[in-house]
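Most newcomers find our protein records easier to grasp once they have seen one. There is nothing in a record beyond a sequence line and a structure line. Getting from the letters to the tokens is the skill we practise here. An example says more than a description, so a record of this kind follows:
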Amino acid sequence: MSPSQFIDLQVAVIDEDPHLRHRTVPMKVLVLGYPRTGTSSVQKALEELGYGKCYHMRTAMNQYPRDCAMWLEAFEAKYDGSGSFEKKQWDQLLGNYSSVCDLPAIAFGPELMEAYPDAKIVLTHRDPNSWHKSCANTLLQARNFWLHAVLQHFDWITGLVHPLRIKYWQCLFGDDFETNGKEAMRTHYEEIRKIARTTGRQVLELGLGDGWQPLCAFLEVEVPGHAYPRENEGGNWILKMHERARMRARAAASKFLLAAAPYAVFGLGIWWGRAFSD
């Protein structure tokens, strides 16, 4: 597979069953704001502040694709009433991380708050109208991208990632983001704030452009001497999506050609034998 211009697409894919993991570090920060509210930037910020790797949708999508199947188990337990997903399972899925943000984790805000009562809560936010437009121009495009629908039948990674993508759009927005997106966002934020008030937990409301100061004060760490990260801006998002899909398509094609080569050689040998035996 050729190298990508995007650093987060250059990571090695690790074929690992998350059910075999356990918690190795304490969970310290839950970033429960919706995607496209600066979650990639706060992910990078937490990592720069020494919290280790922060779990993000890209973690499953680019590096640990079998996590997607376990996330589906969590969705089925919460939204379909099929099975259960308890603290043990959260520790398996997120056990190597001391912070988490973005989808699909934000679909389980109350569950994660219960599982990790000592973790600090951060709610990234932005104007609902600009957020809705940003999601429609990025995340919704990935949901509807024709190549993802095709590749899921030929590429094992897309076959794990895309069903999860479809599932969280169904569960969070009833598969109608245009109609339900803003209300779902409002309901989610109200729920997180209510649970925090009820359980006596503080919540940092972190807006786009707030920078280091409020985050570092909330976490009680020193403010770095460099600029706050600005990650995953809209202009690169679609380019990255297309490149990821092309990489997966090339990988699937290469695998198919390697698998088909022996049969092609065998068939050619039979033809050759028959052609020159006459």
Strands lie at 29-31, 54-55, 99-100, 120-125, 203-207. The radius of gyration is 22 Å. The chain has a mean pLDDT of 88.
